[in-house]
């Protein structure tokens, strides 16, 4: 996965969280207006939106931890694998 894509995924967490809560609020308000159950529908679906937002946050945290725990490739390792000389790296 490219660094740009990883960064965009982490940066989109705020939008995802806000969107989940907003959709829950809108749907709950609409349902309350149709059924006359105000404010219970809105309250329930806002809580569902918070739950979905937390689930999305945990998904991104898990994926980010996996990327950060993966071993990185430095210049010396790359030069050994490719058989090229990289300035500043010692060849074995």
Through-space gap between termini? 30 Å
Helix content bin: over 70%
- Strand fraction equals under 5%
Number of strands: 0
The number of distinct helices, counting runs of at least 4 residues, comes to: 4
**Globular, elongated, flat, extended or rod-shaped: what is the shape?**
rod-shaped
Helix-strand pattern: HHHH
Q: Which sheet architecture does the biggest sheet show?
A: none
Characterise this structure.
The protein has 92 residues and is mostly helical. It has helices at residues 3-11, 13-35, 40-69, 75-82. It has one domain. It contains 4 helices and no strands. Helix 2 runs antiparallel to helix 3 (40-69). The chain is rod-shaped, with a radius of gyration of 23 Å. The mean pLDDT is 83.
Topology, element by element:
Blueprint: H1 3-11, H2 13-35, H3 40-69, H4 75-82
Short overview:
Helix content is 76%, strand content 0%. With 92 residues, the chain is mostly helical.
What are the salient characteristics of this protein?
single chain, 92 residues, mainly alpha, rod-shaped
